[in-house]
Design a protein that fits this description.
A 6-stranded antiparallel sheet has the order 1-2-3-4-5-6, with no helix packed on it. 8% of the residues lie in helices and 52% in strands. The chain is built from 1 helix and 6 strands; from the N terminus they run E-H-E-E-E-E-E. The chain is mainly β and 162 residues long.
Length: 162
């Protein structure tokens, strides 16, 4: 078993539905903008939503301390999502976040491990947002510092630890 604390942030591109575009056109018509006014195109360039997550995850290693170490993880935490819609309304939502994923670690030596992980970082919707599924594939390197771990005899005599 293992435990991890994570804090992450991302900038996600926003995509507007046809309904949102039609609402903006209707609002611009009500404001009396001319059909060829460049202000009508203000939301046609890329806009991003900011997402920040913090969570604590529990990891399960079914093969124990093997050199190749697959694992599953599930966690619980919080997220903050902020963005602006096509009608210039600002939204900031605080929501429940839950990472679920699978990964594998390879122990290169007693101090170095390589890691590959696939996660669905779910953010459960609230008033202004729907549930988000942020899929990620990440690779990493773990470096261990400090002395070697002790084997507590007689429970695990001669055991090799990570």
């Amino acid at each position: 078993w293992g435990c991890e604390f994570r804090h992450g942030f991302a900038s996600l591109e926003q995509w507007d539905s046809d309904r949102a575009v039609a609402a903006q056109v209707a609002a611009d018509n009500l404001d009396g903008l001319a059909p060829n006014d460049p202000w009508r195109n203000r939301y046609d360039r890329r806009r991003d939503a900011d997402v920040r997550t913090t969570d604590l995850s529990l990891l399960y290693y079914p093969w124990g301390d093997a050199a190749w170490r697959p694992y599953g993880l599930i966690g619980l935490g919080g997220a903050r999502v902020s963005f602006q819609d096509r009608l210039a309304a600002d939204y900031t939502e605080h929501a429940l976040a839950m990472p679920i994923g699978l990964g594998v670690k390879y122990r290169y030596n007693s101090r170095l491990a390589l890691r590959l992980e696939f996660l669905d970082n779910m953010v459960f919707g609230g008033d202004g947002i729907e549930t988000l599924h942020n899929l990620s594939l990440t690779g990493g390197v773990e470096v261990r510092f400090g002395g070697t771990r002790k084997a507590y005899w007689p429970w695990n005599p001669g055991r090799h630890y990570w």
